[in-house]
Write a structure and sequence with these properties.
The complex is a heterotrimer of chains A (188), B (95) and C (982). Chain A is α+β, with helices and mostly antiparallel strands. Chain A has four helices and eleven strands, in the order βββαβββαββαβββα. Chain A has helices at residues 42-53, 91-98, 122-127, 173-187, and strands at 16-19, 22-26, 31-36, 63-65, 71-76, 79-84, 104-107, 112-118, 144-149, 152-160, 163-169. In chain A, strand 1 and strand 2 form a beta hairpin. In chain C, the strands form 13 sheets. In chain C, strands 8, 9, 12, 13, 14, 15 and 28 form a seven-stranded mixed beta sheet that branches. Classes of the chains: A alpha+beta (188), B alpha+beta (95), C alpha+beta (982). Chain A binds chain B through residues 60-61, 75-77, 131, 145-148, 153, and chain B through 7-9, 11-12, 14-15, 61-65, 83.
């Protein structure tokens, strides 16, 4: 028995800011596992995905939410992220087993810091930092993209008409938060 | 500039990193008798004509794909964008 | 002061007054005024001094082209020089001061320059300050600098916030005059996403300044009605106070939106937003700029452009004077006379250079056809004008109209060349427009109202069809096409007096003639020799006349002479707007390690390593300087145990059936043979055979490797691996993803490292040397079940491990490690101590692997396999890269042990002269070794490996130092490597 125990201190934990009708909140209850599709065995992988989550692998730039709340985000031609709506002890193993080891998995939970941005002014806030066209006709609900905001790599997912989930590197979480908070202040 | 990504649509060139001419895909055979000479040319010799170039761009702030972008370097007109992996396979590159 | 020049009408709110100060004097205006119109209302004719001759100057225009009325706006840190009074919206307590004078505006001491003007003509500086050479820097430059420059800076940090942003649209319409409004309306009604941008705070362009009727409504009312139409459409974004300043590739436009410049208080809101607008198509409807006619002493306060006079009279309800004469070469000037008269302002005379019948009868106005203005009187304010027929007319203002120049600037930002249209005597956009741009209205040479409305709608229709949107039909509003004939008449010849072309830079007709006579005949040379068209206004009112005169002198036509190239920005953009938020501490993002908070609470100071902040050392009470801390950390680690956060090293997860084969391609040594559960040091080469990066790669499973890179190269190595995977070996089953931020990784180093870890790693994991030897790796759990990774690797040369836990536990993990290590005297160590220990051990970092180093030079030549395909192995065998006489890595120590080695010193064999030819190599890294008690260094020396024990001179001409040093093994400590295998 080890006499020490570890305490989780996720970056941005507790962040919950509302300015001008827009709310920015840390999303720490989320596990992220990347899956890579083995070359020439993509069919087996997508079949496993379909069996496990009842969904087809989304196209590049899109995500699909499974009935259990897991969100599959296509991040590259041979790669997707699975976002699980709670902190899992060993999410990588869980996903790997669920997909019958047809994919290569990597735990990405701690690589990222997640923030949700919600409210009717959310698009105006993002206009100051996000180069993507977020018009609903082009970036509808469940659209997803990796891009760059204020020199930070960001994975942006539209979770609803006026709600976004934003992921950026956990080591620069403070800059990530500052970037969005400054935008909220600037457009308020 | 805007690079029309074959999978993701138009993206600002700021999301990409430029490497060099797409001839870098055509890496010489290391076992060839004249490998040294071939690698020398591969590393150092480039034509730089005005007009269309085929260039390698990396979508670093995106889906991490390498692209072959056909771009006119005098007008910046981009006439074709392909996944570099497809181009490499078409050129017979394997493992 | 009363608003003595205020007249009836205009789009100002007379129910409210605004107080403002000009040169300390309180004045009043109304909402809707610009600073220029308010100054004019208050009878302030003299508003500044000219740049070179310090001539008194007044307001010349009513728009962005203003060359004269530049003021310093606001005070203290907020002060902004060269602000165009014509573009400043009046706000309560506005504070403006005039610029370019020593002493008061009325009595400028530097006005003496005007008396010396015969000597100060074009090229004066180039010709005069040639000799003696010794005067260049000591005398001429300080004197010239003191007198030069437009306006002055506060010399304080800009306290305002700035921001940037991104907008997208189908159609960007630039300019909201008749053509722009019709284009925007047509596009919007057809369902396109439209942005309509205008630099003015009042949409409508010239429609606000004219007495036109559209569909039976006064023009300004029609504008208001049209804007109401837009209000209900969510596919239209109306952007007032927004200057589209530049055209960039692929339909991208730069635009500056002035958010708070018109407000007395900003409450910290960003002053400007610099927008990057992505458009599928753009319609440029930027209107036209009126040009003056050059004549003798045409720069007096009170002389201004004729269209500007209409702006002041019609839009702002203010007249430039009580007796306003008009001098024109075209029909447009007559509109000015008529509008003035209709407002009850006396027009004593209209002078038309054309020898034709008067265009109309004007009651109370003397009409002079075929005449011109040839003299003016009134140094600080116009009093009278003299005509070519010797007539003298009393007047306190003169409206001058020389015709209109389409605003072609944005069409030229991609090197498009405008073309000359003889019928309107002006340049219009050429055929080579920027991709996606169309031009409408006056910018396209359509200089009358009815035609402009029609043109705007038609251009929009064409553009809509082009992007596959069906245009809806919109009734073209009824409006007249006013008379617009004119004559190419550029200047009134006068051999005695100066006639100004460029008011901002004090360039005269004579200067252009001198430039031509001296051979500066290309327009680009003319610009640089005379400064015609330079500075904040970029010659918007002066360029064409300058070209015309150059053409006249050179016996060419204007199109033969051509124009200078217009470049962004169209109008000035503050540097602060380009910087946006990127200033001070948020200049760029920063990254912190998982143990940052703990480190900050435990005496760490931090150093920037790329974007990372890393602990340099952990100061303890009583330590006198950083060396005390670093010496203690390095000593204690070697004596007992030290802990260092090494999370910043790049970590790349590599998986796939071909992962091992892939690593064999990208590393110079072999990884496919590495057993699961083992780590290997890897050396990466560039394709040219030079060392690129190094690090350890662990095999975590049959198809799973974890690569570490140096901190600096993490991003670059990842990029190169993707290149190798996708472009070079596209059929390998190998997949990459970065996990750098996912794991908090700590080096635990020192003889007590294992003892410490046994208190943290769960007991079922055997850490004994037998079970977990040097270069072992594996999955473990710590603190009762927390998944972790353990690597037995050592950068310090001690018995060492690196332990990684999910990064959210990193801050907790360092506390745990320190608590567990307390009984051993464990210390946290920073990157300085890490540096000391790696030098003691002879390990390379960026100092050694600096982009010039071969594997051969660091003694790793044999690591570069020639039995497999890998990046760099072919060219690494080039003769020069394997030359036995080339530099090799060695250790160095001072012969006199109390001396400190100096990094960067070059080595000279004893007895040789210090020169490049005798250079034997250089010192790459030095440190004081607390474990050895003297300075130690690493360096490269020719044939170094054969010269152990030799005493050589280490010379640093920069530091002016020299000392004898001994060449030794780079492994100062435990050369046999027994400790790390312990």
């Amino acid at each position: 028995m080890i006499e020490y125990h570890l305490v989780a201190e996720p970056p941005l934990a507790g962040t919950d800011i509302s300015i001008g009708g827009v709310r920015l909140a840390a999303q720490t209850e989320i596990s992220i596992v990347s899956i890579a599709l083995p070359l020439e065995q993509e069919t087996e992988a997508t079949a496993a995905l379909e069996a496990a989550y009842k969904l087809a692998l989304p196209e590049s730039g899109h995500s699909i939410v499974a009935s259990d709340g897991a969100r599959v985000v296509r991040t590259a031609l041979d790669q997707a992220f699975i976002l699980l709506p709670e902190i899992q002890h060993s999410p990588e193993r869980m996903v790997s087993e669920k997909l019958l080891e047809t994919v290569y998995t990597t735990d990405q939970t701690d690589v990222w810091a997640a923030l949700t941005l919600e409210g009717s002014g959310a698009v105006a806030v993002l206009e100051r930092v996000c180069p993507l066209d977020l018009d609903p006709s082009l970036f509808p609900k469940n659209a997803a993209a990796r891009t760059m905001m204020e020199h930070l790599g960001v994975l942006i997912i539209r979770t609803d008409d006026a709600a976004f989930l934003l992921l950026s590197a956990s080591s620069s979480a403070a800059s990530f938060l500052h970037m969005l908070k400054t935008s909220m202040v600037n457009v308020a | 500039m805007i690079i029309p990504h074959p999978l993701l649509g138009p993206r600002d060139a700021a999301e990409f990193v430029y490497l060099g001419d797409a001839c870098l895909i055509d890496r010489p055979d290391w076992r060839a008798n004249d490998a040294m000479e071939k690698f020398h040319d591969y590393g150092y010799m480039r034509d730089n004509p005005p007009g269309e170039h085929q260039e390698l761009w990396f979508h670093e702030q995106g889906d991490r794909s390498w692209l072959v972008v056909t771009r006119n370097v005098t007008t910046h007109e981009i006439s074709k964008v392909e996944l570099a992996r497809d181009v490499a396979r078409l050129q017979g590159r394997d493992k | 002061m009363n608003q003595i020049n205020r007249i009836s009408g205009g789009q100002i709110d007379r129910s409210r007054q605004i107080k403002f100060r000009f040169n300390g004097k309180w004045m009043r205006g109304h909402p809707g005024d610009t600073l220029a119109s308010a100054l004019m209302a208050n009878g302030q004719q003299l508003v500044g001094r000219s740049f070179k001759y310090h001539r008194p100057r007044g307001i010349f225009t009513a728009g962005p082209e203003e060359p004269n009325a530049l003021v310093e706006l606001r005070s203290k840190a907020h002060q902004e020089p060269n602000t165009r009074a014509t573009m400043v919206e009046l706000y309560e307590n506005l504070w403006a001061t005039s610029q370019n004078h020593k002493g008061s505006l009325e009595f400028d001491l530097l006005a003496i320059n005007d008396w010396f003007s015969p000597f100060l003509s074009a090229g004066f500086y180039y010709k005069t300050f040639m000799w003696p050479r010794s005067f260049w820097e000591r005398i001429y430059e300080p004197v010239i600098r003191a007198a030069a420059g437009l306006g002055s800076l506060s010399m304080e940090e800009d306290p305002d916030a700035y921001d940037k942003g991104f907008l997208h649209c189908d159609i960007l319409v630039i300019g909201s005059g008749p053509a722009g409004l019709m284009a925007a309306l047509t596009a919007a009604r057809s369902g396109a996403r439209v942005i309509l941008a205008d630099e003015d705070f009042q949409m409508g362009g010239r429609l606000n300044s004219e007495t036109y009727e559209i569909d039976g409504y006064p023009a300004a009312e029609w504008v208001a009605k049209t804007l109401e139409d837009f209000a209900g459409m969510d596919n239209v974004r109306i952007m007032k106070r927004t200057s589209v300043y530049g055209t960039y590739d692929h339909g991208i436009y730069g635009a500056l939106e002035r958010k708070t410049d018109h407000l007395a208080e900003t409450n910290g809101a960003p002053r400007h937003v610099l927008w990057r607008i992505y458009s599928k198509r753009a319609i440029l409807a930027a209107g036209a700029t009126e040009r003056p006619i050059a004549f003798a002493d045409n720069d007096r306060p009170g002389i201004m452009l004729s269209g500007a006079v209409r702006s002041y009279v019609n839009r702002f309800g203010v007249t430039p004077g009580q007796e306003v004469a008009v001098f024109t070469n075209n029909d447009d000037g007559w509109r000015t006379a008529r509008d003035l008269i209709n407002k009850g302002v006396h027009v004593p005379a209209i002078i038309d250079s054309r020898d034709i019948a008067p265009r109309q009868k004007l009651p109370g106005t003397r009409i002079f056809m075929g005449q011109a203005v040839n003299a003016t009187i009134g140094r600080k304010g116009l009093k009278a004008i003299g005509l070519t027929n010797e007539q003298v007319i009393s007047c306190d203002a003169l409206a001058v109209s020389g015709g209109w120049n389409p605003n072609v600037h944005l069409t030229c930002h991609q090197r498009g060349r405008p073309v000359w249209r003889e019928d309107i005597h002006a340049f219009v956009p050429g055929k080579e427009l920027p991709v996606g741009m169309s031009v409408a209205g006056a910018t396209n040479g359509v200089l009358t109202l009815g035609a402009s409305l029609q043109d705007g709608a038609q251009v929009a229709k064409n553009v809509l069809e082009d992007i596959g949107k069906a245009p809806v039909d919109i009734a073209i509003p009824q409006a007249e096409d006013e008379a617009s004939d004119g004559q190419a008449f550029w200047h009134v010849k006068n051999d005695k007096k100066r006639a100004w072309l460029d008011l901002q830079n004090d360039v005269t007709v004579k200067d252009v003639k001198i430039a031509n006579a001296e051979g500066f005949r290309s327009v680009e040379l003319l610009k640089r020799y005379t400064t015609l068209g330079m500075a904040t206004d970029q010659g918007k009112t002066s360029n064409i006349a300058g070209l015309a005169i150059l053409a006249e002198e050179a016996g060419k036509t204007i199109p033969e002479v051509g124009t200078t190239i217009f470049r962004p920005p169209y109008t000035p953009v503050p540097i602060g707007a380009f910087a946006g938020r990127s200033r001070g501490k948020v200049f760029r993002p920063f990254r912190i390690t998982p143990s940052h908070d703990w480190a900050a609470k435990n005496g760490a100071s931090f150093v920037e390593v790329g974007n990372w902040l890393r602990a340099e050392w952990y100061a303890r009470p009583g330590e006198k300087g950083w060396r005390d801390s670093v010496d203690r950390e390095a000593r204690m680690t070697r004596q007992s145990v030290g802990i260092c956060d090494v999370t910043t090293l790049g970590k790349i997860d590599i998986q796939g059936r071909d992962a091992g084969a892939f690593l064999d391609k990208v590393y110079s040594n072999t990884f496919s043979t590495l057993p699961v559960g083992k780590v290997r040091y890897g050396l990466m080469l560039r394709e040219d055979g030079i060392c690129y990066d190094d690090g350890t790669t662990a095999r975590m499973g049959e198809r799973h490797y974890v690569m570490t890179t140096t901190t600096a190269n993490a991003v670059l190595v990842y990029r190169r691996l993707e290149f190798a995977r996708q472009c070079l070996w596209p059929n390998m089953d190998v997949h990459l993803i970065s996990t750098t931020d996912g794991w908090a990784q700590f080096a635990v180093a020192g003889p007590k490292a294992r003892d410490l870890l046994r208190k943290v790693v769960d007991v079922e994991h055997d850490l004994s040397n037998e079970a977990f030897p040097f270069m072992a790796c594996g999955h473990v759990t710590v603190c009762n079940g927390m998944p972790a990774r353990l690597f037995r690797i050592s950068f310090s040369g001690e018995l060492a491990f690196e332990i990684a836990v999910p990064s959210r536990y990193g801050n907790s993990m360092i506390s745990v490690l320190m608590n567990a290590g307390e009984e051993f005297g464990a210390v946290p160590y920073g990157i300085e101590a890490l540096g000391v220990m790696r030098i003691e051990k002879g390990h390379c970092t960026g100092n050694e692997l600096n982009g010039q180093t071969t594997a051969h030079a660091i003694g790793a030549g044999k690591m570069v396999s020639q039995k497999k395909e890998c990046i760099g192995n072919v060219l690494s065998q080039r003769a020069a890269l394997t030359d036995e006489n080339s530099e090799r890595l060695v250790g160095l120590q001072p012969v006199e042990k109390d001396k400190d080695l100096i990094a960067g010193s070059h080595f000279i064999t004893k007895g040789d002269t210090v020169n490049i030819a005798n250079d034997q190599g250089w010192m790459t890294s030095v440190a004081y070794s607390p474990n050895l008690g003297h300075s130690v260094g690493l360096g490269f020396i020719k044939r170094g490996h054969e010269r152990m024990g030799e005493i050589i001179r280490a010379v640093s001409p920069i530091h002016e130092t020299e000392m004898d040093v001994e060449i030794v093994s780079p492994h100062f400590i435990d050369a046999e490597g027994t400790r790390l295998r312990d």
